[in-house]
Fold this sequence. Notes:
The protein has seven helices and twelve strands. Helix content is about 25%, strand content about 25%. It is of the alpha/beta class. The protein has a seven-stranded mixed barrel with strand order 1-2-8-6-4-3-9. The protein folds into two domains: about 1-150, Glucose Oxidase, domain 1 (3-Layer(bba) Sandwich); about 160-230, no CATH class.
Amino acid sequence: MTNAILALEDGRTFHGRAFGHSGTTSGEICFNTSMTGYQEIITDPSYRGQIVTMTYPLQGNYGINTDDSESASPHVRGFVIGELCETPSSWRSQQSLADYFKEHQIIGIEDIDTRALTKHLRDKGAMRAVISTELSEEDAIKAANEAPPMEGSDFVKEVSTEEPYLWEGESRLWTIPSVTTKQETNYIDLPPVKYRIVAYDFGIKYNILRSLRQSGFKVEVVNSRTPASEVLA
């Protein structure tokens, strides 16, 4: 792995090792305290433009699959962790976290004291940051201060669907097969469709669409700027 630096706009720096893509990336740095669900976080449109720090020390241990994403592609600008699991172990895993990041050109950095970083962000507030495998410490801090701020950025425009579509993704509830209930598969049948609704995409997550379908709705997703008159026509 390549050495990398994480530099905050207030001058605080952390040194670690890059995984996935290499180069330089910037964004607003924040933290997430979840113990699982890194794939959902990485693909959550609400993290658009942000570098996410995971406080739980080990990430990547169950790999990446096609079922757990919250959107069609990742949205984080960077990913900060304590330790990367290079050999994921799960029957659902289809690729490693490092390979996924390499495929989507996302820079991750490990060997970071994420608890210390999180305490710093808790005390000082969210701020701009840079992850780089090519900049010096001084240049990385400078780049963090020159990075575009979140204020004024129209991320909704970036994440909203360009064309309307009917939600046809997997929506069945996952379960464990049971001899007692004669449930032989990993999925529970969906209820019949009762109503048709329109969902505006301001960065909507797949799990919201799944929940709507589980409640008996046929869901059409439209761009965030779609006029109400067009929806009601």
